[in-house]
Design a protein that fits this description.
Number of strands: 0
Oligomer: single chain
Largest sheet: none
Distance between the termini: 56 Å
Order of helices and strands: HH
Structural class: mainly alpha
Strand content: under 5%
C-alpha cells in the first residue's frame, strides 16, 4: 500500500472562534460586575413565591391559582417592573 504525503499547509478552521482565558482564572482587580436586579425586584419575587406556596397567588387574566415556580417569578418581576424597580427588559419573541 502506498501512503499519501502530507503537505505542510495550514489546517482548516472549524468555524468556531477560540476564546482566550487568563491563567489562574483570576478576575481583574478593578472590574466589578453590576447587579442586574435591584433589591425591590428581589422582594417582589420573594413575596410572590410565598403567596404561591400558600396557594394565594393567582394569574392576572384568568384568575387561576399559580402552581409553577417560573410563573411566580415572572409575576414578581412584572410587578417590580410596573413599580419602576431595576429589572432587565423582557426578551421579546422572535
Amino acid at each position: 500500500m502506498a501512503r499519501k504525503k502530507r503537505t505542510g499547509g495550514r489546517k482548516k478552521s472549524t468555524g468556531r472562534k477560540k476564546t482566550s482565558s487568563r491563567k489562574g482564572g483570576r478576575k481583574k482587580s478593578g472590574a466589578r460586575k453590576k447587579r442586574k436586579y435591584g433589591p425591590k425586584a428581589s422582594r417582589k419575587v420573594e413575596r410572590s413565591m410565598h403567596e404561591m406556596k400558600r396557594g394565594e397567588l393567582k394569574s392576572g387574566r384568568s384568575g387561576k391559582k399559580v402552581t409553577s415556580r417560573k410563573q411566580a417569578i415572572a409575576i414578581g418581576l412584572s410587578e417590580a417592573r410596573s413599580e419602576g424597580a431595576k429589572v432587565p427588559k423582557k426578551k421579546g419573541s422572535r
